[in-house]
TrEMBL record:
Organism: Parasphaerochaeta coccoides (strain ATCC BAA-1237 / DSM 17374 / SPN1)
Domain Cyclic nucleotide-binding residues, every copy: 133-195
Protein name (record): 3-isopropylmalate dehydrogenase
Lineage, opening ranks: Bacteria, Pseudomonadati, Spirochaetota, Spirochaetia, Spirochaetales
Catalytic activity: (2R,3S)-3-isopropylmalate + NAD(+) = 4-methyl-2-oxopentanoate + CO2 + NADH
EC number: 1.1.1.85
Protein's cellular compartments: Cytoplasm
GO cellular component, one term: cytosol
Length: 357
């Protein structure tokens, strides 16, 4: 197979971590005989500096023509004074919206080797955590009409969803739940919000096609509470854009390691955009301190979801586990008795572990 991948390193640690993910992808290519063509594009603050806009049309075009995008992170203090519509983060919304990426997958996995990093009590997470948050990404309040009154004294945002929008994300979530434990929790605020009542009704309708999946509904405030009270009750969670943003951050933090968690943004075909969930960490940019594992694991998700290379995806995930098992740690996940390594060495260790018997 020949893969056509657009790399968007972005700002801060973005270039540091994307470089290491490429190292690992190259190791996979060597082992598997597949080939890859990379095209590197600008987005975020670096794009503002070079072209005046956060998302140059050439980047969106290249992404549209590719099979998949691997993104580092965008933003940083240098662009904090840029007006709202021209901020680096606009590039993310532009890519998600422009590419029609309505389905955001965020696995929150507590690696047994890193259980010390989990902020919850040991008995609450005994047996580990492996939660998949499926977040709707192109609808809801983040894309609704908004406004500020002329006197600056009032403002509004609107949340809207159509049945079609809910159906397509619900179907994705049911499919994913079917491939895992068969448990799906749909999160909404149906006691208050009209959009949530439509959400719940639509998810219920979809459920008839998936009798093998056990569906439950939770209100979002309860879901937030349950995630820290008894997170092991969850397998797959599906929810709308803003609730998903908040719950997936919460779910990721109970695994204790922002530098470990990948994400995928998908649509109906096999195209996808893959990125770590963390930001551009300007405090450690260019210092060989960033943990590249979230980006490396995002590349594994790319192999799985876009290229349907399950074996190769597992190869990368197993390599990461082995490197952790052997005690190698970047600063953010370091604990007593482990060996500290930098960004580059971590990437090299994983690349070397790929495909080892
Ligand atoms: P952040 O995720 O960049 O950093 C939070 C903390 O975690 C920092 O102490 C950082 O050093 C650390 N950290 C993050 N990733 C790490 C890694 N891979 N290895 C080791 N440590 C890591 O979030 P923050 O500080 O709120 O935002 C910084 C910039 O990133 C802002 O401009 C923000 O807008 C942007 N951002 C971009 C995102 C994206 O591109 N998807 C997402 C979130 C924030
Ligand atoms: Mg967020």
């Amino acid at each position: 197979m020949k893969m056509d991948i657009v790399l968007i390193p972005g700002d801060g640690i973005g270039p540091d971590i994307v470089r290491e993910a490429v190292k690992v992808l190259d190791a996979v290519m060597d082992k598997s005989g597949h080939t890859v063509k990379y095209t590197t594009c600008l987005a975020g603050g670096c794009a503002i500096d070079e072209t005046g806009v956060p998302l140059p049309p050439s980047t969106l075009e290249a992404a549209q023509k590719s099979d998949a995008v691997l993104l580092g992170a965008v933003g940083g203090p240098k662009w904090d004074t840029v007006p709202g519509d021209m901020r680096p983060e606009k590039a993310l919304l532009g890519l998600r919206g422009g590419l029609g990426l309505f389905c955001n997958l965020r696995p929150a996995i507590l690696y047994p080797q890193l259980s010390a990093a989990c902020p919850l009590k040991e008995e609450v997470v005994a047996g580990g955590l492996d939660i998949m948050v499926v977040r709707e990404l192109t609808g809801g309040i983040y894309f609704g009409e908004r406004g500020l009154s002329a006197d600056g004294q009032s403002a509004y945002d609107t949340m809207a969803y159509s049945t079609a929008e809910v159906e397509r994300i619900a179907r994705k979530a049911f499919e994913i739940a079917r491939g895992r434990s068969g448990r799906l929790t749909s999160v909404d605020k149906a006691n208050i919000l009209e959009t949530s009542r439509l959400w719940r009704k639509t998810v219920e309708c979809c459920a008839t096609a998936y009798p093998d999946v056990q569906l439950t509904h939770l209100y979002v405030d309860n879901a937030a509470m349950q995630l820290v009270r008894a997170p092991r009750q969850f397998d797959v969670i599906v929810t709308e854009n803003m609730f998903g943003d908040i719950l997936s951050d919460e779910a990721s933090m109970i695994t204790g390691s922002i530098g470990m968690l990948p994400s995928a943004s998908l649509r109906e075909d096999s195209f996808g955009m893959y990125e770590p969930i963390h930001g551009s960490a300007p405090d450690i940019a260019g210092k060989d301190l960033a943990n590249p594992l979230a980006t490396i694991l995002s590349a594994a998700m790319m192999l799985r979801h876009t290229f349907k290379l399950e074996e190769e995806a597992k190869m990368v995930e197993t390599a990461v586990s082995r490197v952790l098992e052997a005690g190698w740690r970047t600063g953010d996940i370091f604990s007593e008795g482990c060996s500290k390594v930098g960004t580059r060495q971590m990437g090299t260790l994983v690349a070397e572990a790929v495909g080892q018997e």
